């Protein structure tokens, strides 16, 4: 009995000694077999994928209680590129050897209570190899809680600090635990991740909540055996998914699937004390970023001896693009970027000395060097500024791009302050503007990545603003405020307020232009501190003593803060009592435009604005677009989670001819981000007064009276010298990159240089002299428009990257030579009566390359999915121009097309890519949809049966080519297209993009009956007396606009439109007047009669109507084709008619178009229009029938009613009736159908032309 008790006690003691807490015995050697693999593709059958696989044995030897030695042996590196199930992994012996050599170096790690505390490696072991080791050791880091079967922890792992969900199942018979761990990588609080290139894209949380384009998670399954030393992982596996889509992952995606496994082979005792050479700490288990940050994912080349490679490539690219863009080599600039990013500052200086002596090489080097993107390029440019060995133009262009592409840090911002102090920066006004604005942009990007943003970064700009205010320098104040607007730093609010009247008492007497700049400088702060900006903007908007322009600008800023319903209601209440028509008109149009917005960022704001419109509409809905207006148009797809928006505004008083300010900008919306594209703005300063004061002088001069026009524009005596005539600015990605003033002195110099009385002192004179000798000018610009990168890690310790690259190469070449007879003797006005012949050839074009990469990117190997696109746009020319301005004769001669000339093309495809630094010959780019897939897979609908494990794709390959030939001239314009697509039922909309695509527009030779030596176009403007004056032209436009705006009831009913009549306007014009314009377009060949077309335009003004006749005749043997057109405009503003006939002697086909203003029920303004035809060509009839088939369905979708009527054949009529100031009715009749709709809201407020004309007449009198 006593022995039994002892046995039980011993058994209990033994059980208590067993533990599941992960641990390693320092006196043991553990040998594991490890394998890891990663594949990237769409995960669909018969589509190519790429990947890599790592195999090795790992031996862990105890050195001390917490320190263990890792030895890796039998390492094998394999690659995959092909179709799963049909292709296999293949070995890469050289890369295997290189990686194995580094893995053979000593590696130790500190292991405490199941955590990898520190990893140490020899100095020569790269970060990439250490990260692979992290992937192996990651299996040892697991948290086991035997008291809970399900638990959640936030713990560090290879992905960072992330939440893990655990589930445990214990097998009591084997003393083993099955531990399942799931990590949501997307939700990590401190993620091992690097994101670059997105600082200027505003975050949109509402859009992000609707869906995501990136999802990542990993699942681990461990088998943990309880031992006396602790829990021992005997077997484990992991599966990881990274899903990416340019739209939303629900609509098709690119998938990275990573797996790894480890199995314990044996455990033995340590013999002796293992020797460990010196090592250094490389951090814990969290992935550490290294050389992959400098490795461009679409390029993998050996980077040894970079200087000669850079020199050779720059010279080769410069030569290849010396006349036009060499599209096949345009993407080579990315190779140069890669090489430049590994050289030193001294190397940059060496390249500058080697290449700066040649104009082409110098320009290419400066344009490419900006992509070094760290302190080296800043120091290099500081050296250039200090040495002043670059021109102001070169310095401005290079600094602008360099600072915008810089990988920003506080240290680099501090270093860049020196540009503000170097005297060279102020050597030219535009260069100084560029320096100041670029520094502001640098501060903005620092604050985008660093919170709180250090106040010292923006301090130089604050000092500039305060100094300018003390000096009362308008130009310097505007300059500093524009830079502060770029910076968007929270510390700048107090300084900006000093320039805002009503908020700062010192700002009362500041010019409107300065205050406007101060208001606009709040634009980025609307996102960073919306509540403070709301208070400021609202206060300005409600201060009625401020100029209308300032209040209008404040309203824009206010609504950019996305005010809540309560604040919008407050603005609405005040607008009901607003007395300034400009403020009321603009604010109402702003609210009305936003009420229709569909983008997620305006989701709540549009609802609030909708309510406001209903309240304000009855009172403020009648302003014409002569008043200040705001326009917002947008589109957003919930399926794509993508959209665009456009905004434009005009600040204008009805009494002014031109607006005070105009602006237009566009935005691109994608998942979670808003990217502001381009914004252009002009503020008319004194030029508005100049044009208003001289408008009456233009009424009686002729369009071609150059001397009179120049004399009027030169009269600027009454304008102040210290005020600019015009101010213009440009913003890219929300950052102002350019602004300039046109000052009175500069304007007068331009007018003087262009004056007909200008002599040899004019710079234009010298240009003309050079032109007679022959000039040649060439310019190229390689530019990386976009580089965005998101780099994370995988459980294997390999970096997965999603990146986008958008490089372009632009080229302009102009060669020209002029002959002037007689040559100039004394002044420029002699040109107007001289015969001028200008021979020119050249090229304008750009090639755009787009790359999207998703996959593994290291300095040793790359594998993944890559979308590659190339878009060349080319416009070559070669022609001769002959002209005599006084005689109104113009002639253009050019050669016929002799070969295919591509004007525009888009080519893209998606590839599975594999690259290997040691064995470039093994690199592969396999189209994701191989060519064989098109023939091997029959086109069919996807199967939807639930018992099918995979879907069958629908594969198709449409091809088309359409040409429009001008046979007399031997020219054909062709459009060709080809697509290869694989459709899956759950892959919408991704399948629209993935596959081969080709679209091209090109000019080709066409077959002709006889050879063509040259094509000649002659234009003779006719007698001087027949040319309408600007006043006549404006009155004609005025009447046309008035007819179209008086809205609108286009009824084919004769009683409703008494201004129309059925009589065709075929009566001939009285007399035989001289034509206003004669034009000939002829194909010429020596010894043969010309072929082509001749046209003549006749204009007969009369007291009650204007008549215009057009006659086009085909020139050539045995041809009688003609087109005859008559247009009659009734000056009583009642009707207009056009009669068009063509064919043999204008007798084959004819169309009548008639329109008239009328009134229904005596007072309802209406417009009626009708199109009639007797005979039409077959192709026009077929097109018309096709359109008619779509009308019922489209009218139903648009909310129109419809009825089948027996309307007149060969006739279409329309009627628009203005039922109220804000709505109109419409009715359209085709031969068999009538569609109608009532109370349609006017898209814009109609212009009251009568009031406008009265104002104009009053000004004249």
UniProtKB/TrEMBL annotation:
Tell me which InterPro entries the record gives: Lipid_transp_b-sht_shell, Lipovitellin_superhlx_dom, Vitellinogen_b-sht_N, Vitellinogen_b-sht_shell, Vitellinogen_b-sht_shell_sf, Vitellinogen_open_b-sht, Vitellinogen_open_b-sht_sub1, Vitellogenin/Apolipophorin
State the protein's name. Answer: Vitellogenin 3, phosvitinless
* SUPFAM superfamilies listed in its UniProt record: Lipovitellin-phosvitin complex, beta-sheet shell regions, Lipovitellin-phosvitin complex, superhelical domain
* Entry-linked SMART domains: DUF1943 (SM01169), DUF1944 (SM01170), LPD_N (SM00638)
Q: Region labeled Disordered — which residues?
A: 932-953
Record-linked PROSITE patterns? VITELLOGENIN
Q: Where is the signal peptide?
A: 1-19
Q: Which residue stretches does the UniProt record annotate as biased composition, category Polar residues?
A: 932-944
* Cystine bridges: 162-188
Example GO BP: response to estradiol
Per UniProt, residues of the Vitellogenin domain are 24-662
* Record-level Gene Ontology MF annotations: lipid transporter activity; nutrient reservoir activity
- Whichever gene encodes this chain, its name is vtg3
Reading the lineage from the top rank, the first entry is Eukaryota
Q: Which UniProt keywords apply?
A: Disulfide bond, Glycoprotein, Phosphoprotein, Signal, Storage protein
């Amino acid at each position: 009995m006593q022995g039994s008790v002892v046995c039980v006690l011993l058994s209990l003691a033994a059980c208590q000694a067993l533990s599941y807490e992960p641990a390693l015995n320092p006196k043991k050697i553990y040998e594991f077999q490890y394998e890891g693999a990663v594949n990237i593709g769409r995960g669909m059958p018969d589509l190519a994928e790429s990947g890599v696989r790592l195999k090795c044995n790992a031996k862990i030897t105890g050195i001390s209680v917490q320190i263990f030695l890792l030895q890796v042996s039998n390492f094998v590196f394999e690659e995959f590129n092909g179709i799963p199930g049909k292709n296999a992994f293949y070995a890469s012996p050289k890369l295997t050897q290189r990686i194995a050599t580094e893995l053979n170096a000593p590696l130790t790690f500190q292991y405490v209570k199941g955590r990898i505390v520190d990893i140490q490696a020899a100095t020569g072991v790269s970060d990439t190899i250490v990260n692979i080791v992290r992937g192996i050791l990651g299996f040892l880091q697991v948290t086991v809680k035997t008291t809970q079967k399900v638990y959640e922890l936030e713990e560090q792992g290879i992905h960072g600090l992330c939440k893990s969900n655990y589930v445990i199942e214990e097998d009591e018979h084997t003393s083993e635990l099955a531990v399942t761990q799931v990590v949501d990588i997307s939700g990590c609080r401190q993620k091992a991740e690097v994101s670059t290139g997105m600082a200027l894209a505003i975050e949109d949380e509402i859009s992000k909540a609707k869906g995501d384009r990136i999802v990542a998670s990993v699942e681990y399954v461990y088998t943990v055996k309880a031992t006396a030393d602790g829990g021992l992982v005997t077997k484990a596996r992991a599966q990881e998914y990274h899903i990416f889509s340019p739209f939303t992952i629900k609509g098709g995606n690119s998938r990275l699937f990573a797996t790894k496994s480890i199995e314990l082979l044996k455990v033995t005792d340590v013999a002796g004390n293992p020797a460990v050479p010196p090592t250094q700490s490389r951090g814990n288990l969290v992935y550490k970023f290294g050389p992959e940050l400098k490795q461009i994912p679409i390029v993998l080349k050996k980077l040894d001896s970079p200087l000669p490679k850079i020199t050779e490539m720059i010279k080769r690219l410069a030569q290849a693009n010396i006349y036009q863009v060499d599209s096949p080599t345009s993407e080579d600039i990315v190779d140069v970027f890669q090489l430049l990013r590994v050289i030193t500052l001294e190397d940059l200086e060496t390249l500058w000395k080697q290449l700066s002596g040649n104009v082409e090489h110098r320009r290419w080097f400066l344009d490419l060097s900006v992509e070094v993107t760290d302190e080296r390029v800043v120091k290099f440019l500081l050296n250039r500024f200090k040495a002043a060995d670059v021109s102001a133009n070169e310095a401005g262009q290079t600094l602008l791009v360099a600072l915008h592409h810089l990988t920003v840090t506080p240290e680099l911002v501090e270093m860049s302050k020196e540009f503000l102090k170097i005297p060279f920066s102020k050597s030219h006004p535009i260069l100084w503007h560029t320096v100041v604005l670029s520094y502001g942009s640098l501060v903005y990007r620092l604050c985008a990545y660093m919170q709180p943003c250090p106040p010292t970064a923006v301090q130089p700009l604050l000092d500039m603003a305060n100094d300018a205010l003390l000096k009362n320098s308008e130009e310097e104040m505007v300059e500093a405020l524009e830079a502060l607007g770029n910076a968007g730093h929270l510390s700048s609010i107090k300084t900006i307020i000093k320039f805002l009247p009503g908020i700062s008492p010192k700002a009362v007497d500041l010019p409107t232009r300065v205050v406007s700049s101060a208001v606009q400088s709040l634009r980025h702060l609307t996102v960073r501190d919306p509540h403070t900006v709301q208070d400021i903007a609202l206060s300005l908007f409600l201060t009625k003593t401020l100029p209308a322009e300032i209040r209008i600008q404040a309203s824009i800023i206010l609504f950019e803060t996305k005010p809540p319903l309560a604040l919008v209601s407050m603005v609405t209440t005040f607008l009901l009592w607003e007395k300034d028509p400009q403020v009321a008109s603009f604010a109402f149009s702003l609210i009305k435009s936003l009420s229709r917005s569909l983008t997620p960022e305006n989701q709540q704001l549009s609802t609030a604005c909708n309510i406001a419109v209903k309240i304000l509409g009855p009172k403020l809905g009648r302003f014409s677009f002569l008043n200040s207006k705001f326009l917002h148009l947008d589109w957003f797809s919930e399926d794509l989670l993508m959209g665009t928006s456009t905004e434009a505004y005009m600040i204008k008083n009805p009494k002014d001819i031109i607006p005070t300010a105009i602006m237009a900008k566009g935005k691109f919306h994608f998942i979670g981000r808003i990217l502001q594209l381009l914004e252009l703005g002009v503020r008319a300063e004194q030029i508005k007064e100049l044009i208003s004061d001289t408008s009456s002088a233009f009424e009686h001069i002729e369009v071609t009276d150059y001397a009179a026009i120049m004399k009027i524009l030169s009269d600027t005596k009454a304008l102040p010298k210290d005020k600019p005539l015009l101010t213009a600015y440009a913003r890219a990605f929300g950052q102002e990159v350019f602004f300039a003033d046109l000052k009175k002195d500069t304007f007068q110099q331009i007018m003087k240089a262009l004056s007909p009385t200008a002599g040899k002192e004019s710079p234009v004179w010298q240009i003309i002299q050079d032109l007679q000798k022959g000039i040649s000018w060439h310019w190229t610009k390689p530019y990386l428009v976009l580089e965005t990168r998101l780099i994370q890690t995988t459980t294997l310790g390999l970096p997965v990257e999603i990146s986008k690259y958008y490089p372009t190469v632009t080229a302009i070449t102009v060669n020209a030579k002029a002959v002037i007879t007689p040559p100039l003797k004394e002044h420029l006005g002699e040109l107007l009566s001289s015969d001028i012949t200008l021979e020119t050839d050249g090229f304008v074009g750009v090639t755009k390359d787009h790359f999207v990469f998703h996959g593994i990117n290291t300095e040793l190997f790359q594998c993944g999915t890559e979308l590659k696109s190339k878009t060349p746009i080319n416009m070559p020319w070669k022609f001769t121009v002959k002209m005599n301005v006084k005689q109104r004769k113009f002639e253009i001669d050019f050669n016929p097309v002799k070969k295919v000339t591509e004007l525009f093309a888009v080519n893209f495809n998606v590839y599975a890519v594999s690259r290997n630094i040691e064995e470039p010959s093994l690199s592969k780019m396999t189209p994701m949809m191989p060519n064989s897939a098109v023939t091997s897979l029959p086109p069919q609908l996807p199967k939807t049966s639930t018992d099918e494990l995979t879907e069958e794709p629908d594969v198709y390959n449409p091809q088309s080519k359409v040409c429009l030939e001008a046979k007399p001239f031997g020219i054909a314009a062709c459009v060709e297209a080809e697509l290869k697509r694989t459709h899956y039922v759950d892959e919408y909309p991704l399948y629209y993009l993935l596959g081969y695509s080709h679209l091209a527009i090109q000019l080709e030779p066409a077959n002709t009956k006889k050879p063509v030596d040259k094509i000649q176009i002659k234009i003779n403007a006719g007698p001087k007396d027949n040319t309408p004056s600007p006043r006549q032209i404006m009155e004609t436009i005025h009447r046309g606009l008035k007819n179209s705006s008086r809205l609108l009831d286009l009824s084919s009913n004769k009683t409703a439109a008494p201004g129309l009549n059925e009589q065709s306007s075929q009566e001939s014009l009285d007399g035989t007047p001289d034509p206003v314009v004669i034009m000939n377009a002829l194909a010429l060949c020596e010894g043969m009669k010309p072929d082509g077309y001749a046209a003549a335009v006749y204009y007969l003004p009369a007291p009650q109507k204007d008549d215009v006749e057009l006659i086009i005749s085909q020139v050539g043997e045995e041809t009688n084709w003609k087109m005859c057109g008559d247009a009659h405009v009734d000056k009583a503003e009642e009707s207009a008619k056009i009669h068009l006939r063509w064919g043999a002697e204008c007798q084959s086909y004819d169309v009548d178009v008639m329109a008239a203003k009328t009134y229904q029920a005596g007072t309802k303004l209406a417009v009626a229009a009708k199109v009639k035809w007797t005979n039409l060509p077959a192709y026009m009839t077929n097109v018309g029938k096709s359109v008619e088939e779509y009308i019922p369905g489209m009218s139903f979708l648009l909310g129109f009613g419809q009825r089948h009527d027996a309307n007149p054949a060969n006739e279409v009529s329309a009627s628009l009736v203005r039922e109220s100031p804000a709505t109109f009715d419409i009715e359209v009749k085709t031969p068999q159908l009538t569609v109608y709709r009532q109370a349609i809201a006017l898209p814009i407020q109609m212009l009251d032309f009568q009031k406008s004309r009265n104002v104009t007449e009053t000004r004249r009198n």
